[in-house]
Amino acid sequence: MSQKLFTEYPEQDERKYYDLVVEQVKTRMDNLYKDKERALRDTHTKGHAAIKGILEIFDFDEEAIKRELKKRTSLTSSELNAISLKQGLLSLPKQYPVWLRFANGRFQVENDYVSDTRSMAVKVMGVEGERLEQSYESKTQDIIVHNSEFFFVKTIRDYYGFFSAVVESDEATKKWLFRHPRQFLALIKGTSQFPKSLLTQRYWSSSASALGLKPDFDPSKTGLVPVEYPAVIKYAFTPVSSQPPHNPIPFQSRPGMPKLPFIDRAKALGLDPNQPDNYYRDDLIQALAKPDAQYCWDFGIQFQTSPKMSIDDATITWKESESPFFTVGRLTVKHQIINFEKQYDFCENLRFSPWNGLWVHRPVGCINRLRGVVYPVVASYRYQKRGLAYQEPTGNETF
User: Fold this and answer.
1) CA 61 to CA 66: how far, in whole Å?
2) Number of Cβ atoms within 10 Å of the Cβ of 54
């Protein structure tokens, strides 16, 4: 079946797999936390810190972006004119307070020298507009990004198979990965980097979001029939120098990181494998404690310019040679003291989801549709375990 631009497509028996994955997630959470006082997240489990920042949305040149898109897509002039870039979070030049949660991607807390992805969950506050039906906050927009351009699981059915194996045992997980070599290779590639600092790392959304909705949009049809959007984009945060002209910062590896199995890796780094390695949290604390500390990322959007750039298969990278990121804002983090127990507790109690945000930025693609089902289950488990009533952050929190 030939696919259309800006269109997400359902999987066969998709909604059946929602229920199956949810049951496996509940089982996994019980296996890990039923007899404990506190439950952590099921993924991105090890949080490093919560950090305050400012996201500035620029008064970017919408027409210049459209002229560039016309060169790279088969969109007609009337179709391009129908795309509105300046809406939702991007509608006005404005500065927003943000909370950032930096974390490792694994299912459990591991040492930082273990191969993994590194994530940055961005909570933008004070965002006005009509909200998604799944939103649990009133004036925020969540953007979840990590240091890989792609996700390693291709379909909802595959995610069910993989997660079922995780619930069963480490051996079952290995067998599943060996039976799915393409996804196994994607996992290895996506977890192969050890950045020097999370403050100078590039982050991508890997999954896509709509930019606007058609007047006749019906959310009940997603996951059942193909649904077309005015435009579909991905996000990225690219580290740049804090002073003009804000040149991109090239990737740097953690010092002395050898390409060895993790036990040997620890010894080569002069570390005790039986002691916790919290390299990234320690680096965040030390870097931001400096009075002149300032770190910046260009906030960019990337358009789907060809149906081959799949919306539903997040293992496919959207090549920047075919569709560049357009800078629409800048994220800035400055000097702050973050080594407080209350602040770390606040970090772990924060809730993030791509479904917490504005209607016009609706998450799209199969993995995002699955997230919309799974994330509320994990969040409810975490809060019920501690008897917490969730409170929406404002950016004015002090510790």
Assistant:
1) 9
2) 17
pTM score: 0.95
Q: Which residues contact 213 (CB under 8 A, 6 or more apart)?
A: 229, 230, 359, 360, 362
User: From the centroid of its chain, how far is CA 88?
Assistant: 19
Distance in angstroms (rounded) separating the CA atoms of residues 211 and 226: 17
Kindly report, residue by residue over 277-321, the tens digit of the pLDDT.
999 999 999 999 999 999 999 999 999 999 999 999 999 999 999
Q: How far apart are CA 295 and CA 316, in angstroms?
A: 30
pLDDT tens figures, 202-244: 999 999 999 999 999 999 999 999 999 999 999 999 999 999 9
CA 375 and chain centroid, separation: 13
Distance CA 215, CA 334 (A): 41
R_g of the chain computed on alpha carbons: 21
Q: Chain-centre distance of CA 214, in angstroms?
A: 25
